[in-house]
Write a structure and sequence with these properties.
There is one protein chain. The chain is largely without helices or strands. The chain is 14% helix and 5% strand. A two-stranded antiparallel sheet has the order 1-2. Strand 1 and strand 2 form a beta hairpin. The longest helix has 11 residues.
């Protein structure tokens, strides 16, 4: 399915979107709940004011650094 140049709200529930490509897409104020993003790649992303809660971050990296290590370093600095 190809969606182009739409301003309509899209609601996907119980949807298999594995392998999907989102390019030049505005997802500001979008809500993601109970979503599996394992293996996903995010490149050139603006995440200003994003809130992440109740996460499984095992193996997650930011700029090649394990997020678990970042949290450990933060805790050690306290």
């Amino acid at each position: 399915m190809m969606i182009r140049d739409t301003k309509d709200r899209i609601e996907a529930q119980n949807a298999g979107l594995a392998g999907s490509v989102f390019e030049d897409v505005n997802l500001s104020t979008a809500r993601f709940e109970n979503v599996n993003l394992s293996g996903a790649v995010f490149n050139n992303i603006n995440m200003a004011d994003v809130k992440l809660t109740n996460l499984n971050i095992r193996g997650m990296t930011i700029e090649g650094i394990l997020v678990e290590d970042l949290f450990a370093a933060y805790e050690a600095q306290k």
